[in-house]
Amino acid sequence: MKIQRLKRKNSRNLILDMTPLIDVVFLLLIFFMVATTFQDVDSSVNIELPKSSSEHKITIKTLEVKINKDLEIYLIVKDLNGKNEMMKVEQGNLKEKLGQKLELTKDKNVIVSADKSVNYQSLIEVLDIAKEAGAGSLDLNTKSLN
What we know:
Layout: H1 19-35, H2 41-44, E1 60-67, E2 73-79, E3 84-89, H3 91-102, E4 109-114, H4 120-133, E5 137-140
Parallel strand pairs: 1-4, 4-5
Antiparallel strand pairs: 1-2, 2-3
Helix pairs in contact: 3-4
């Protein structure tokens, strides 16, 4: 008995369209790239720190120096727990107080907010004191025009 092969009616080659498949692969790639969480480099290295009596704890999140229109200076300390501490400081004591607080910060950033009526010389003096106290960077706080 002879086995007959089935033949196609049209003898053209079958071409598979790859465009939808590539689209799906790229969508999956984008999905997994967006959904992936990345580990912090510091958290991937497991180390146990040695103990020391002079442990340096970072407890302050931001430091802000405010100057009102009467040239009164206030030091505002925002710690990592969300508590705010505001203290009135004389210009002569600002360097000492700010230096003590800057030792407890990580980035040594100081935000300076001054009333618009404060003269330029007074603002520059406070900025100089903050730099001398050890501020790494100084930011001037402004209000939006909106």
